[in-house]
Design a protein that fits this description.
heterotrimer, A alpha/beta, B mainly alpha, C alpha+beta, A: alpha/beta, Glutaredoxin, 7-stranded mixed β-sheet, 6 helices, 7 strands, C: alpha+beta, 6-stranded antiparallel β-sheet, 4-stranded antiparallel β-sheet, 18 helices, globular
Chain lengths: 175, 121, 628
């Protein structure tokens, strides 16, 4: 009897392990920061790009929705998403876009915006990239959609795609 | 612009020197952090954009007097348990930390029982 | 052309495998006492064909036949010949072919060199081994065919990943595969032994040499991988507890446990079922390791081109293997009486196994744990060096003490000899440890324990060495391995505590001072090589209290085929220490990130491992002389 229980236990253990491996095969091992969704962002202190002031939570609370977009002039995929950002800025009145210029030279950043258009309602500067850590950023472009209460609704890794664009539109217009 | 970069690196180097005078060992922390954009490398071993930024932030936090544990907690809050190589002891990870010792005790018990059986003969 | 030859040979081998199984069963049901010549011949053909098949692939790499997709993806016509050849097994398909070769050759030699064992036992081993061979051949042919064609035929290959173009890595896979694929033969033998009830001393003798040879090669294979990681990955470490490294370590633990308990089976006919478990476990772990590495289920620094469908095949194969062996085992298992004395050699060998199983399960759990949290709780965790160091290192200390005491016991008898001597050795070890601290620098409590216990094992083994040289007894190989293991731990301990590591940014012309070292970034030049461009830095290292004047030249290499950037460490090694510099560029800046390391006794870590495996080879040759 006792022996049979041990045997049964061992066999179930093996089945369990193999089952987990099997499911694990189809899981992506690519990292993302989905755990951030639902968290409230805090302790924001971003240097304004051109004015001598600091952007804090108070500034963001004024907006119904804010899309915080991390970009740089040296980042090629940032060019791809630029049109989407311009469109969002034009069409969505509920949404403000806060750009964070990441580890960039000021002149290059200005030229980038002059050439491609400026989608940002506000622009901040993260010269050494240190502030990006506070937002859970690990590569650019990345964007974070937050609501009035500064709660993260979604995080977009890589350039904003057409799907992401419709998603944002849907959320913002639900209001 | 160039001057700014130089100043930046001087500050950075000063920071590095300063860090040594504190008890917290920045190198050890770097080794215990996963570089998220690399393939299985630690922040200490990587020179990616991300690793460089993390190094700056960790050095800043050490300078602000944060303890090693506080720094890990801050980064876990932002990036999840994935970023630390030593998983914190919590309800997800307790099996990981407990099981090896269980094996050790169980193995010892089995050998002990085998020997005792003999003594009873 | 070459592709057709290869495919034909592979298909032929499947036919031969099937016929071997068929004739084997025929032979079993006949009353013949001997194994038919036909079977020997088939095995000979099988080995010959698979070797020719492999040579076909090698020649396809040498002549750069880009009509074959594997060659196209992993080679380039301008590559040096050595790396064209090693490129054959530097990829998934080719390395799988190497798997099959080792399975096949071991199968043939096992049959050839076990003349004195019963027919049925050998036949069943052969059948099981051929089932394994067929399993891998089907996998090779239908999911990872190294001879698949590509059309239109490309003019040029994509090239081999430059970090794989390295002599240590060229020999690493063959060594490692002889180790863990070699373990297949005692998996088959264990199953045959269960089926035919062939147990006890004779069974132990029949597999002993195979365990020894695979263990020795596995040790060397791990060493080659480690050396490669040390100078190629550019982080200055030699063991990262990366999933792929762990995958090679797991079978090693099982083999080491097996190696020891096999002695008990041979000498005292005890622990039969435990030995069987270890035989089965070793190969199951080897296949599990392959599954973890090739399926891409784990995030690792050593990426193989991975593909979940391959993972699925290996997983199914693995499950069949596990279930078949577990069910058979349950069916045959009888609890037996163990006759052990607490201070006998048997007990200490069991203690060795106890620790090996602890290491094995800890490393296994740590390696697969992220898969479990991901699947069960959607939670991603990383298990890395700090976990393993925290859990394993304290236990190593206890292990080393048992390892020193164990060999000074005798079979059956409940008696130690020379306890007094051991006590004196311990005092000497502690004294030396504190001298090191006093003269050089202090280190953590745990390091104290590690160094003391390592010294303890070294001295205990040195005394054994002296005795075995005087008496010329069989113990000599064991002593060599144990002594070398003591040295390995000692040098790792010293290396860990006396390394200097510095990470800083410099530009050309600048100088960095720290402790009593100074490093000067003297020059930077760009050079063109055959298959890459290199940015080479020139660094001068000086020490304030001696005239060092070492020059190091780390490189950043830019490869075109495939386009990759690698960071080449520059290392100056001598018997006492290595100086190690890597340099990497910082984007959008004229500064370079410099990592400087001084690593004492690196050379001795490698040498120690070589001697550990040498013990295995020596014992192998001694046995071979005795039995064959």
């Amino acid at each position: 009897m006792q022996k049979n229980i041990i045997k049964l236990f061992i066999i179930s253990l093996i089945i369990f392990v193999i089952g987990v491996f099997f499911i694990g095969l189809n899981k992506s091992s690519i990292y993302d920061t989905k755990d951030l969704v639902g968290q409230k962002i805090s302790k924001i202190q971003l240097d304004h790009f051109s004015d001598n002031r600091i952007i804090t939570e108070e500034d963001l609370k004024k907006n119904d929705f804010t899309l915080i977009n991390f970009w740089a002039s040296w980042c090629a995929p940032c060019r791809d998403e630029h049109a989407m950002l311009l469109k969002l800025n034009n069409d969505e009145k509920n949404l403000k876009i806060l750009g964070v210029n990441f580890k960039d030279k000021k002149d290059n950043a200005l030229k980038f915006l002059k050439d491609l258009g400026d989608p940002y309602d506000d622009l901040a500067r993260d010269e050494f990239g240190k502030h990006s850590i506070n937002f859970g950023i690990y590569g650019i472009p990345e964007s974070i959609l937050i609501d009035k209460d500064l709660v993260i609704i979604k995080k977009f890794i890589g350039p904003i795609s057409k799907n992401d664009y419709s998603f944002i539109k849907q959320i913002v217009r639900k209001q | 612009m160039k001057i700014k970069i130089i100043i930046f690196f001087i500050i950075l180097n000063l920071n590095a020197v300063n860090a040594e005078t504190f008890l917290v060992d920045s190198n050890k922390i770097f080794k215990n952090l996963r570089c998220l954009v690399c393939q299985g490398q630690s922040v200490g071993d990587s020179n990616s954009e991300f690793a460089q930024t993390i190094k700056l932030v960790v050095r800043d936090q050490i300078k602000d007097g944060k303890t090693e544990k506080e720094i890990y907690e801050f980064l876990i809050e932002k990036y999840g348990d994935w970023i630390v190589y030593k998983p914190p002891l919590n309800k997800v990870n307790f099996v990981l930390w407990l099981f090896p010792y269980l094996v050790l005790v169980a193995g010892g018990t089995i050998i002990f029982l085998l020997l005792k059986k003999r003594d009873n003969h | 052309m070459l592709s057709n030859i290869g495919n034909t040979l592979l298909s032929l081998n499947i036919l031969i495998g099937i016929s071997i199984i068929y004739f084997s069963f025929q032979n079993l049901s006949s009353s013949k006492v001997l194994i038919g010549r036909k079977i020997y011949h088939l095995c000979l053909f099988q080995s010959t064909f698979i070797i020719i098949c492999f040579l076909t692939l090698v020649s396809a790499f040498i002549v750069s036949d880009f009509s074959i997709i594997t060659v196209y993806q992993n080679s380039h016509s301008l590559k040096p010949l050595l790396y064209k050849i090693s490129g054959t097994w530097g990829n998934h398909e080719g390395s799988l072919l190497l798997w099959v070769i080792i399975l096949t050759i071991f199968s043939f030699f096992f049959l050839l060199y076990n003349k004195n064992h019963p027919k049925n036992y050998k036949i069943y081993s052969l059948i099981i081994q051929n089932i394994l061979i067929l399993g891998f051949l089907f996998f090779l042919l239908f999911s990872s065919n190294p001879f698949s064609m590509v059309s239109p035929i490309p003019k040029e290959g994509l090239g081999l990943n430059p970090i794989l173009q390295d002599p240590a890595l060229a020999i690493h896979p063959p060594l490692l595969y002889v180790g863990f694929v070699g373990s297949s033969i005692y998996f088959s033998a264990a199953i045959a032994s269960l089926i035919t009830n062939y147990s006890g001393k004779l069974f132990a003798q029949s597999i002993k040499n195979w365990v020894l040879i695979s263990w020795s090669f596995q040790t060397l294979g791990i060493l080659a991988g480690s050396i490669w990681a040390y100078y190629e990955l550019g982080w200055g470490g030699f063991w990262f507890w990366d999933p792929v490294e762990n995958a090679s370590l797991l079978p090693w633990f099982a083999m080491t446990a097996l190696l020891h308990s096999l002695i008990v089976l041979e000498k005292r006919s005890l622990l039969y079922f435990w030995v069987i478990i270890l035989c089965l476990l070793t190969f199951i772990l080897s296949v599990t390791g392959t599954f973890l590495v090739r399926s891409g289920i784990l995030n690792s620094v050593h990426t193989f081109a991975n593909d979940p469908s391959r993972g699925l095949y290996i997983l199914i194969f693995l499950s069949l293997m596990i279930f078949a062996s577990v069910l058979l085992f349950f069916n045959k298992f009888k609890s037996s009486n163990y006759n052990l004395n607490s201070n006998s050699k048997e007990t200490f060998i069991l203690i060795n196994n106890w620790f090996m199983i602890f290491y094995l399960l800890t490393v296994l759990l740590g390696t697969v744990y992220p898969i479990f949290t991901e699947v069960l709780t959607e939670h991603k965790v990383s298990v890395g060096p700090p976990f393993y160091n925290t859990v394993i290192i304290p236990i190593v200390v206890i292990f080393l003490f048992f390892m020193s005491v164990g060999p000074r016991t005798q079979w059956i008898k409940n008696k130690f000899y020379n306890l007094n001597l051991l006590f004196k050795i311990l005092i000497v070890s502690i004294f030396i440890n504190f001298s090191i601290i006093y003269i050089f620098k202090s280190y953590s409590l745990m390091s104290n324990f590690i160094i003391i216990s390592a010294l303890f094992l070294i001295f205990a083994s040195l005394i054994d060495l002296y005795k075995s040289l005087k008496k010329q007894n069989i113990e000599f190989p064991r002593v060599i391995s144990h002594l070398a293991f003591g040295f390995l731990i000692l040098f790792i301990g010293l290396n860990y505590n006396f390394s200097i590591e510095k990470d800083f940014n410099l530009k050309v012309g600048e100088k960095k001072n720290f402790e009593n070292y100074s490093i000067e970034f003297q020059n930077l030049k760009l050079e063109d090589f055959q298959n890459y461009k290199a940015v080479i830095g020139e660094f001068k290292i000086n020490k304030s209290d001696e005239n060092l004047n070492q020059f190091l030249f780390p490189e950043i290499r830019i490869y075109e085929k495939p386009s990759t950037i690698t960071y080449e460490a520059s290392i100056r090694s001598n018997l006492l220490k290595d100086y190690y510099i890597t340099m990497s560029n910082i984007d959008r800046s004229e500064y370079y990130n410099i990592k400087f390391q001084k690593k004492p006794f690196m050379m001795w870590i490698w040498i120690s491992v070589i001697f550990i495996s040498l013990g295995g080879f020596l014992r192998f040759f001694k046995n071979a002389k005795k039995y064959y």
